[in-house]
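Budget justification aside, the reviewers requested a transparent look at the raw inputs and outputs of the sequence design task funded under Objective 1. We therefore reproduce one unedited record. The lines immediately below are the structure tokens for a 951-residue chain.
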């Protein structure tokens, strides 16, 4: 008896037994929709999907394992299918793409792929060759389903589609397969789907449930949308942080499909949406492709009309952000989005009283897929011709990108720039470096300033944009995505009318700002003496005769190095100033292991060596602790002892699953050290003494007074509490655990906040007039910063203005962060750090707290000869403030957040509180601010609290 017969027999028995206990329901969901989805003339030697399911195909959600079973059988039963395993999820599930075509085409896959590759690079292919290739090429479609795990109908449609394509004897299907390579990516997020399928089992009763508010339809925290670490995989297509996307993108880029269908679901009470996006559309996208989008949508719409199915196109679907599946549009593939109204199984009742059934949802996705494939069949040659024209343009000097070169300046943060290189290479982007300086003109800086004469230093990463993937390169590296005046008008109208937005995602996303790497854009094609960019070599010099061993603190991996050694009970120090020892110059924040600190560790040298090897990071041996002149020596106060972090993340219902997930992932991925995730409802009775570092991801869960007092006691005894965004907002508004205020509650004390700010400004720009200082007479000629300005604004006006300005807060834009370059939290960061900023709490740090990062880059500007007053703060004469770096930041918002704190640190008892106004680990991609967070988690306990001494 095979496994499937066994399963179905078992299920029949189970059903029979339950019927005795449970009452029969008055209706069955199978009665809701009588159409047959799979109604072709099928080859009986191929198993019907029903065989792999414990229900009838299309009526319920197939689990990833059931779909997996079918794939494994189909690849044995059919010669029209080739299965490619392109990755494994975090939970160990395989990721499959199925190449489906005629057996003849399947035998030719390598040749087809070579031809596709030749067609994509016009530097290597002539027009004549291209024509020949186009004549011979089958169409190529990539059909991808259910990237959001709880948007289930897509993957069920995929299961039917696979069967239909390999089993149907109808001429329409065999003709399709003769002329097309169809790559089906049936379950893009198996971990999320498995999580949701499990909740369906748990919440299913005897009667069908049509109420879209019930748990069976909604699921519960953290929901099935995301992958194992709660990442939204449909925002990861260019940042490539997750194994699902990494494997998928590399295979898609290998195949260069003509269309990529990405099948989703949306609100339960909606209908079906497809078709081209509305504005804002990223300007780097080829408009010919948008034209083809209309052709596909029209055919699909006609098919829906014919079947009496309601649908729409456009509406909320925009395409500014390049990290959706639509990244393919920049590479010449037409992305097609499906959005089916969402239900888990059974059906959902609608206001007019009808019930939309799950099976009908599956049917919509199935028919849409077949319709799109037929449209592609009819237009494939014409689309290839357009593609070829576009690919030729990309490498020609006529293209809009031809005179554009992106340059990332040299950095000691090797792991970060290597990560950038990996991501760019995954998209077939060609990157170079220079051995000698190159002089260029009119260079654009990240802050928007133009430098007339600029020297590109040797060792920069250089990306001239006259290459095949030019549009994508521009989309992900240009500092600012162009947004039309008309779009801005509509956005402002929406904001003013009801506080809504027409922007569906962040309005800024470029890689170098996300990564906190300094870069410039050169308005010319930089060529000449360039060589291919390669990672610098790593040198692990761990000599047992040395007195200490050190890694450079600029590299993000230095934090990992310290964390992993501490986890193995090695005592680690950190040098909080730049140093020069044994002829080595090392950055501020370099972790060092001193032999004397670890007298009992006989394995020390080996541990350091192994850790460095695991991480692939350079280590130097030092033989003297003497730093020349004023530079630190090893027994002084700059060699600060760290404390092993014992970490817990507060988690569960009430927290943003994204921010919980990315915090969890950051600890696993960047550090690989032990930590616990705590259900926050346990705070009142858990033994918090086990941890010295508590992480509060962003969340809307308000702690009650007794929970707050537990936290307070814990911090007082030496704990480090780190909070993000909405959790920061909650702690600030609680008003008892932190002295930090939200700007809207701070206007009574504006003067004090301004004085603190002026002290910071003045301390950075000191000039001494000896005669004035050494004069023995008393003088009335003393300058007071607050008396320099005449436009002081009273607190009532400030309050009214703040309320108005708060309407215009950004939704994902880069603003300039000004770092305190002496604070340990800023180890490894650049001076002007781009901060991805949204509607975050606007933080005010008064006395007793430190504003480690403030919003706004202070720039010299001699034309500004007066003190400028912006809300509560003054900008000294001779200076100006840069706020916006990229994306939409209304001037009202700039004024509101100017000089406010993005990151604060304050002592509380023997412990400390570290507040991020934003979400520093956003999407696992904001490496610039992620470094601040890693510093806080790993160094916080040692550097910001009173040391604990065991008696
Ligand atoms: Zn979705």
């Amino acid at each position: 008896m095979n496994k499937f017969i066994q399963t179905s027999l078992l299920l029949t028995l189970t059903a029979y037994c339950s019927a005795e206990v449970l009452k029969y329901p008055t209706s069955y969901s199978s009665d809701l929709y009588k159409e047959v989805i799979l109604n072709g003339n099928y080859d009986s030697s191929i198993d019907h999907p029903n065989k792999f399911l414990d229900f009838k195909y299309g009526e319920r959600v197939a689990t990833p394992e059931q779909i997996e079973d079918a794939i494994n059988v189909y690849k044995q039963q059919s010669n029209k299918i080739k299965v490619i395993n392109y990755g494994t999820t975090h939970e160990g599930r395989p990721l499959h793409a199925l190449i489906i075509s005629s057996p003849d085409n399947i035998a030719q896959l390598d040749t087809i792929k070579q031809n596709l590759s030749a067609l994509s690079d016009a530097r290597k292919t002539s027009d004549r060759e291209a024509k020949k290739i186009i004549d011979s090429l089958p169409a190529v479609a990539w059909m991808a389903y259910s990237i959001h795990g709880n948007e289930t109908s897509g993957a069920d449609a995929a299961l039917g589609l696979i069967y239909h394509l390999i089993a149907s004897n109808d001429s329409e299907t065999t003709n399709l397969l003769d002329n097309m390579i169809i790559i089906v990516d049936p379950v893009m997020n198996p971990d999320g789907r498995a999580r949701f399928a499990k909740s369906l089992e748990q919440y299913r009763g005897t009667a069908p449930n049509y109420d879209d508010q019930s748990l069976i339809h909604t699921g519960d925290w953290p929901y099935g949308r995301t992958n194992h670490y709660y990442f939204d995989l449909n925002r990861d297509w260019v940042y490539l942080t997750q194994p699902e996307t990494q494997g998928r993108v590399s295979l898609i880029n290998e195949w260069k499909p003509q269309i990529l269908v990405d099948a989703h679901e949306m609100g339960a009470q909606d209908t079906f949406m497809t078709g081209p996006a509305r504005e804002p559309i990223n300007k780097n996208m080829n408009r010919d492709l948008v034209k083809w989008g209309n052709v596909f949508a029209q055919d699909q719409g006609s098919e829906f009309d014919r079947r009496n199915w309601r649908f729409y196109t456009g509406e909320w679907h925009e395409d500014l952000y390049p990290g959706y599946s639509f990244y393919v549009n920049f590479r010449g593939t037409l992305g097609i989005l499906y959005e089916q109204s969402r239900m888990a199984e059974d059906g959902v009742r609608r206001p007019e009283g009808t019930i939309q059934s799950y099976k009908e949802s599956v049917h919509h996705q199935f028919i849409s897929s077949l319709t799109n494939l037929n449209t592609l069949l009819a237009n494939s040659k014409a689309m290839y011709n357009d593609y070829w024209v576009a690919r030729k343009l990309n490498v020609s000097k006529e293209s809009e990108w031809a005179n554009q070169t992106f340059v990332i300046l040299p950095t000691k943060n090797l792991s970060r720039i290597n990560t950038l290189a990996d991501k760019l290479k995954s998209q077939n982007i060609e990157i170079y470096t220079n051995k000698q300086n190159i002089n260029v003109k009119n260079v654009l800086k990240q802050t928007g300033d133009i430098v007339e004469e600029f020297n590109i230093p040797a060792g920069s990463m250089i990306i001239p944009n006259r290459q095949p993937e030019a549009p994508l390169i521009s989309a992900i590296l240009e500092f600012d995505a162009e947004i039309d005046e008309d779009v801005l008008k509509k956005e402002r109208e929406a904001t003013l009318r009801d506080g809504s937005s027409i922007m569906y995602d962040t309005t800024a996303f470029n890689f170098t700002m996300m990564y906190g790497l300094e870069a410039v854009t050169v308005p010319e094609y930089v060529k000449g003496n360039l060589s291919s960019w390669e990672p610098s070599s790593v040198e692990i010099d761990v000599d047992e005769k040395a007195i200490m061993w050190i890694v450079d603190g600029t590299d993000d991996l230095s934090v990992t190095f310290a964390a992993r050694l501490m986890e193995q009970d090695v005592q680690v120090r950190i040098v909080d100033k730049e140093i020069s020892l044994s002829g080595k110059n090392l950055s501020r924040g370099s972790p060092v292991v001193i032999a004397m600190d670890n007298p009992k560790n006989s394995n020390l040298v080996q541990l350091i060596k192994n850790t460095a090897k695991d991480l692939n990071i350079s280590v130097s041996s030092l033989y003297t602790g003497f730093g020349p002149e004023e530079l630190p020596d090893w027994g002084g106060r700059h060699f600060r002892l760290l404390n092993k972090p014992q970490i817990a993340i507060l988690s569960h219902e009430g927290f943003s699953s994204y921010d919980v997930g990315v915090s969890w992932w950051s600890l696993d991925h960047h550090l690989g050290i032990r930590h616990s995730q705590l259900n926050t409802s346990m705070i009142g009775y858990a033994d918090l003494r086990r941890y010295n570092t508590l992480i509060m991801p962003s969340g809307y869960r308000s702690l009650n007074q007794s929970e707050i007092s537990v936290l307070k006691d814990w911090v007082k005894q030496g704990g480090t509490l780190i909070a993000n965004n909405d959790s920061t907002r909650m702690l600030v508004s609680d008003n008892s655990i932190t002295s930090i205020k939200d700007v809207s509650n701070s206007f009574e004390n504006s003067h004090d906040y301004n004085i603190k700010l002026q002290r910071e400004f003045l301390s950075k720009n000191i000039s001494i007039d000896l005669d004035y200082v050494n004069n023995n007479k008393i003088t009335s000629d003393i300058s007071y910063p607050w008396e320099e300005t005449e436009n002081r604004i009273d607190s009532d006006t400030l309050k009214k203005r703040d309320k108005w300005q708060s309407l215009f807060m950004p939704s994902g834009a880069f603003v300039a962060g000004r770092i305190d370059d002496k604070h340990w939290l800023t180890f490894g960061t650049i001076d002007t750090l781009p901060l991805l900023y949204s509607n975050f709490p606007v933080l005010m740090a008064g006395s007793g707290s430190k504003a480690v990062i403030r919003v706004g880059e202070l720039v010299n500007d001699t034309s500004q000869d007066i003190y400028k007053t912006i809300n509560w703060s003054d900008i000294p004469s001779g200076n100006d403030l840069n706020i916006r770096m990229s994306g939409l930041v209304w001037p009202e918002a700039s004024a509101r957040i100017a000089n406010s704190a993005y990151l604060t640190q304050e002592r509380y008892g023997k412990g400390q509180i570290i507040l991020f106004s934003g979400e520093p680990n956003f999407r696992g991609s904001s490496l610039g601010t992620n470094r601040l967070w890693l510093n806080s988690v790993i160094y916080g306990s040692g550097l910001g609290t009173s040391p604990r001494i065991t008696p």
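The longest helix spans residues 358-394. The radius of gyration is 30 Å. Computational costs for records of this kind are itemized in the attached budget.
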